[in-house]
Fold:
Amino acid sequence: MERHEQLSVIVDRIVASDEMHTKWLNSLSMMENTGARKISKYEHPVHTGIIVLKHAAEEARHAYYLKRQIGKLDPDACPDYSYPYLLAPIESYHYLNQLDVDACRYVKNKLNLSGREMKHGAYLLVTYAIEVRADMLYGIYQEALTKYESRVNVKSIIAEEEGHLEEMQKMLEVFHPQWESLAKDMCEVENKLFEKWVAAIAKILNDSTVSQSY
Structure:
């Protein structure tokens, strides 16, 4: 079974269960919110362009939008981002934070950059890798939502993430002539963290199935 198909099976199982689905939405919301806060932290107090402001605002909106979608399934579910209300909470929190650390180390060692320049390079590469992932993941998620005729939908997020990816590519082209090689390396780093996250979620789903059989 190909990786895309395996992920589709996992997401299908999540959408089929309101309890799992609310935690999934909450986990995605938490990660979008983490991204928004990281961008805000990265922003220069003076030299901040409109694209960075737009990106931070849209990531925050995604977090809010996903949180609102939970109410369509259970208005009382997942009041905050505490561990009991997330799927694979440790891996969910670790995912973006570790990717950020890995990106800073990569830019420092690969390009010999430090300070603001290092943070800028890391921001571009992390955001690019995340947008590539979001394009794939939200696409699979929307397919499952359509299949199960769910009241939840993420079509607006998909459209905005596609725009983000184009913007990041343009910024990376300005940042470095070998941006494609750098972006490929960062996507490989991101993929390892993503695989750990998916494996943790799959284990929760499998454990839940086993417990229900008794």
